[in-house]
């Protein structure tokens, strides 16, 4: 992006006006992306070191893809692309040994879908990234469990695993978002109906309440009457962007209203002093290796929502300008991979929300159905014992 185009784009918050431009944000994003790569034990694969988890490698892989699409710097694209093929099974479905949960598998499917949405080249004779995401979605449709609670996705895949009796919001949120994004890229009506079905299930159980708070999950051994009301930032993020994608393809204003509701919930529950904040664990310093990454996932989907729903762009820009200023004031190259991940997603989101997008993330062919807002107005996902 030319400096002349970058420097004209400023946000309304004073921290952004004084300290940040699109150009400077992109410079910082480049530094953070390089710091992430340096932390990788194998420089040819985006697999983060233990004690971090395999699913977190999936989100970091997605982050490096997204960095390239946002900034135009594609130096990590082959690395991320090769990692997807390396982590795919013979069935091209990411059912690796560490894919014990539906969410574990879905994070990798979403990374593949990000590549597909943005036209990453597929090597001759290789499966497409879209087919990889579809394979995961089709498998997960088969795991939709109507034996209890009227439906929903279980947290764990295999009976007997801890968490198998738990229907988690992250497993259902990723399934919903995967369905919404696949429906948009393929135009498949059945896939779209699955997105509607999975969203409706979340509201019917109360896991999404009337104020768009997203609770962590519920115990299906008691027919989902007992809700775990812990709230984590990535849960609302999953539904925020999924709802935004539904808005762009259905033309139904209810999805804009829902997206706005999730945005309000994100600001209400996960922002403190201009920074993204994980209230359950951050205040007492107890965030574990899973939880430390959640804010970065919310940041990613805030930025993506600003792209697909321009009517929310200014609100998200004001939020992410403050967040990115906080990140930039505290980020150093010596941090760990998940801290780098959160920083990169936060800065990239500020770039997107302020219009500095090199490629419209998740916007194959542009948005043909952007709608106007109507005149209406104990956590398993957190790896705490349920």
Automatic annotation (TrEMBL):
Belongs to the glycosyl hydrolase 76 family. Its EC number is 3.2.1.101. Residues 1-19 form the signal peptide. The keyword Nucleotide-binding does not apply. One of its GO terms (molecular function) is hydrolase activity. It catalyses: Random hydrolysis of (1->6)-alpha-D-mannosidic linkages in unbranched (1->6)-mannans. Pfam families: Glyco_hydro_76. It is an enzyme of class 3 (hydrolase). This is mannan endo-1,6-alpha-mannosidase. The gene is DCW1. Keywords: Glycoprotein, Glycosidase, Hydrolase, Signal.
